[in-house]
Design brief:
Elements lengths: L5 E3 L5 E2 L11 E2 L13 H10 L1
Antiparallel strand pairs: 1-2, 1-3
């Protein structure tokens, strides 16, 4: 499923465009990635989180 809603990282407004209509900066996907308990790489993500 593709997320259509996007959020500007500078002015914090939501839009459907790749570039913000207010400040002309890039927009990001505000939705978190899917979580699964059977994730093969969870060990590495947790390790990376605590090391940084």
């Amino acid at each position: 499923m593709k997320h259509l809603l996007r959020k500007c990282e500078f002015c914090k407004t939501y839009t459907l465009e790749e570039k913000c209509t207010n400040c002309d900066n890039r927009t990001l996907d505000p939705h978190p990635p899917k979580f699964s308990l059977e994730d093969k790489y969870i060990r590495y993500r947790i390790k990376e989180k605590y090391e940084s």
